[in-house]
Amino acid sequence: MSSKETNAGSENGVLTVQQLGLPVLANLLAGYRLACAQLPDSEPIPGSFWGEAEAGLIGNRLLVRGDTPVHSALHEACHYVCMTAERRQRLHTDAGGDYDEENAVCYLQILLAGCLAEVGSQRLMRDMDDWGYTFRLGSAQTWFEQDAEDARQWLLARGLITGAGQPTWKVRGGE
């Protein structure tokens, strides 16, 4: 764990885009042809389903503020990756999807956090718990390690991760 990881976080300890740095996030998501834009903290985020500081999605643009939690940005980005091409074409605010896709989104966001040395999967799972994500086994880490095989299989079946559990940097539909 880096010193940035142990000391970074918003008031509630959750890592924000400001602390991570938009270029780090944008570089990761460029592999999916998903553009990132940061708005001033005082502005509402267009395309945000949850409002407040939560990330927004409009087309192939992920919209964030400095106070947007990194887990929110990754979660919405993973919705973009996991949705059908038809839904991506008309994407504005509500990513939609079903229960299985939502689980796959959570699984993939944990994997993507592992690709960021400044974040890491462990940190992201703690932030998910601190923010209020709920899993039937009590924590994101326990779910990921013991109860997420269905999510992993969903991602594998759609070519979004490799058999070794690495992102393929493709969106659903093979793009």
Structure in words:
The protein is mainly alpha-helical. It has one domain (13-157). It contains 9 helices and 3 strands. The chain has helices at 3-7, 17-20, 22-30, 70-82, 85-89, 99-114, 121-131, 140-146, 149-157; strands at residues 35-39, 56-58, 61-65. It has a 3-stranded mixed sheet with strand order 1-3-2, covered by helices on one side. Strand 2 and strand 3 form a beta hairpin. Helix 4 (70-82) crosses helix 6 (99-114) and helix 6 (99-114) crosses helix 9 (149-157).
Q: Give the strand order, joined by hyphens, for the main sheet.
A: 1-3-2
Main sheet properties: 3 strands, mixed
Task: Report helical residue fraction.
Answer: 40-55%
Unreliable stretches: 1-9
Q: What is the overall silhouette? A: globular
Beta-strand content estimate: 5-15%
Give the number of domains. 1
Straight-line N-to-C gap: 34 Å
Number of helices: 9
Helix and strand content put the structural class at: mainly alpha
What is the alpha-carbon Rg in Å? 15 Å
Helix-strand pattern, N to C?
A: HHHEEEHHHHHH
The tally of strands reads: 3
Oligomer: single chain
Q: What is the overall pLDDT average?
A: 90
